[in-house]
Amino acid sequence: MPNNIIKTKIIVRFSETDAFEFVHFSEFFRYFELGFIELLKEINLLEKAIKREIGFPIVEAHCEYKNPAFFGDELEINTIVKKIGNRSITTVHEIYKTNFNKLIAHGWISRVFMKYQTRELVQISEDTKKKLEEYLKI
């Protein structure tokens, strides 16, 4: 079990739904991104991303849809770190409908660390690795 889980709550907006009134499948990747942004805040890397010093391009993504979500639903996105590489991390995300504690979707995203200006991959610093380990699920 990870020491810490990043928990992010959202309310589904009407614009996130499709013609059948379900949350559109593509929105779940945006929700995963919200969890990742919260992780960046926790490990003090968000400022570097905003200043375009470092970027985190997605190299692989996966999502499994378990139950529908609808406009107005409150969702909780739980984010943990699954793997820390030399130049990459994989985060796992689970989305629950909070009023029923029902799993809506789960998936993972792998990202590389990249120097923004040169677009070169960079090593994850030891300091950042230590911070990420607080959210690591083995």
Strand and helix order:
EHHEEEEEEEH
What is the helix fraction of residues, given as a range?
A: 10-25%
> What quaternary form is this?
single chain
- Total number of beta strands: 8
Tell me the CATH topology.
Answer: Thiol Ester Dehydrase, Chain A
The SS-based structural class is: alpha+beta
Number of domains: 1
So what's the overall shape? elongated
For the record, what is the CATH homologous superfamily label? Answer: Hotdog Thioesterase
Could you tell me the strand content as a percent range? Answer: 35-45%
What's the tally of helices?
Answer: 3
| CATH A-level architecture | Roll
The main sheet comes to:
5 strands, antiparallel
Give the SSE layout.
Blueprint: E1 6-11, H1 27-42, H2 46-50, E2 54-55, E3 58-65, E4 74-84, E5 88-97, E6 102-112, E7 114-115, E8 120-121, H3 126-133
Antiparallel strand pairs: 1-4, 2-7, 3-6, 4-5, 5-6, 7-8
Label this structure with key terms.
elongated, 138 residues, Thiol Ester Dehydrase, Chain A, alpha+beta, 21% helix, 5-stranded antiparallel β-sheet
Quickly describe the structure.
This protein has helices at 27-42, 46-50, 126-133; strands at 6-11, 54-55, 58-65, 74-84, 88-97, 102-112, 114-115, 120-121.
What does the model show?
The structure is a single chain. Helix content is 21%, strand content 38%. It is α+β, with helices and mostly antiparallel strands. The protein has a single domain (6-133), classed as Hotdog Thioesterase (Thiol Ester Dehydrase, Chain A, Roll), CATH 3.10.129. The strands form two sheets. It has a five-stranded antiparallel sheet. A three-stranded antiparallel sheet has the order 2-7-8. The model has no long low-confidence stretch (mean pLDDT 94).
